[in-house]
Design goal:
Elements (H helix, E strand, L loop, with lengths): L11 H4 L34 H17 L1 H30 L5 H30 L4 H51 L2 E4 L2 E4 L1
Antiparallel strand pairs: 1-2
Length: 200
């Protein structure tokens, strides 16, 4: 290890530089070697630009067309993300509207409906079209992102707003009705104290 291509009189520690040809590099791995005084490449010089990214996306889409198990896992992941989004929006709207009842009903519907709608729409609009070859790479990415926005964000938010808003309105209406009933009983001479009714 001490004599990797050096001569006997050279001391690497004194110079502080490792010789360029000191170690053998496999032929399939290309590592850029920079010597002292050579400028570093800027991000603009990098070769990973639009054509390379498009080529990578095309390879991944071809892989998706061949492997059906990857599409199943991707679809389930997509649907699970929409279900978690539904749970989060339900939590936010329940907290904001101060709804304290029908918890199981709202959480069940707001996890199951976005999950199922995402899976069905992704299967019909993306997966089946991808298997048949009737969709281009750009359309595949566009449809997937639109399904993610529509079924994973907008649909759970609208569903949570409508369900929790209805429950909040119903609870507020019931509270007002109870207050009105108490007022009418007070005016008629009936006083309600805890569980006892006293008639004056």
């Amino acid at each position: 290890m001490a004599a990797l291509g050096r001569e006997a009189g050279d001391d690497v520690r004194v110079a502080g530089v490792v010789p360029v040809g000191a170690a053998e590099v496999p032929k399939d791995i290309k590592i850029p070697t920079y010597t002292h005084g050579q400028s570093r490449p800027s991000p603009g010089d990098a070769k990973l630009r639009k054509p390379v990214v498009i080529e990578i996306i095309e390879k991944k889409i071809e892989c998706l067309r061949k492997e059906k198990t990857l599409n199943i896992y991707g679809t389930l992941t997509f649907g699970t993300t929409a279900a978690f989004s539904g749970m989060l929006t339900n939590f936010i709207f329940r907290h904001r509207f101060k709804v304290t009842y029908d918890v199981l009903k709202t959480y069940t519907s707001l996890t199951a409906l976005p999950f199922l709608s995402t899976i069905v729409s992704y299967k019909l609009l993306v997966t089946d079209a991808l298997y048949s070859g009737n969709i281009s790479q750009e359309d595949c990415v566009l449809r997937s992102s639109l399904i993610g926005i529509a079924c994973g964000v907008l649909y759970p938010a609208a569903l949570a707003f409508s369900q929790n808003g209805r429950l909040a309105f119903k609870g507020d209406k019931k509270k007002k009705w109870m207050m009105k009933k108490e007022d009418s009983l007070k005016h008629s001479g009936v006083i309600i104290k805890s569980n006892h009714i006293c008639i004056m």
